Amino acid sequence: MAVAMASCGIISGIYTNLNAIEKLSISSSPCLFRGSFGLDPIQRICIVPKRLGFSESTIIPKASSAAAVEDGSSQDTAVPTPKVIIDLDSDPEATVVEVTFGDRLGALLDTMSALKNLGLNVVKANVYLDQSGKHNKLCITNASTGRKVEDPELLEAIRLTIINNMMEFHPESSSQLAMGEAFGAFQPYQKLDVDITTHIHVYDDGPERSLLCVEAADRPGLIVDLVKIITEINIDVISGEFDTEGLLAKAKFHVSYKNKALIKPLQQVLANSLRYYLRRPTTEESSF
């Protein structure tokens, strides 16, 4: 399902304590992202080790306290795994975002307010419960176009905004999030070995596209980095889903090369390029 790409946005101005992000330019295309970014070395989002702040956001009353449960009682329970899912596949008109943190999340009014400050509209919101807890699902569009959000920088801004608000109102969540190391109240409870954590697979998914599955240690800017690496080898990203599950990031991208599924040699090139970058995130070109 090819979708039209939104114009590229810059997310550096939305946080007062977030370092400047170098601009990335992406041209319009029938695909979500097409071709090379045309930029030399891979640029990363840098975050100072402080909690993020929103320059213009209006904070609406806080969600329930860290230890509060649905019946209002206070109990010492294990901290659930925070999850943020950004889905570009399930709704043709909107980007679907799902946020889960056990039964500790409130109505997310503060988060929706912060998203509006990014130039976004929450066109629909609903909540459902299952054995894993309360799931808050938001359907988001770009306020200026009324279309779903597809720009990787803006998708990353959405993700960081939600995670920042979760750590603001539920500080205990930072111990289970990779972002907690940079600007959370508590350090992550463990460090992931990137060589063990990184898994990349490419599958055939019909004659016109392939399915790329990536699992890696999470870090700020990962959505932008993944898309940049893929497009630098002239592979088109058609659509996808990006999940933040605690310290892990899990991505699924539908990709193609010249409107065809990737042949086996190109699948291997793609997997090797991503694996090399994800397993060596601090490698500099000057070391070669």
Automatic annotation (TrEMBL):
GO terms for molecular function: amino acid binding. Keywords: Repeat. The keyword Translocase does not apply. The keyword Magnesium does not apply. One of its GO terms (cellular component) is chloroplast thylakoid membrane. Gene3D superfamilies: 3.30.70.260. PANTHER family: ACT DOMAIN-CONTAINING PROTEIN ACR (PTHR31096:SF44), ACT DOMAIN-CONTAINING PROTEIN ACR4-RELATED (PTHR31096). Binds amino acids. This is ACT domain-containing protein ACR.
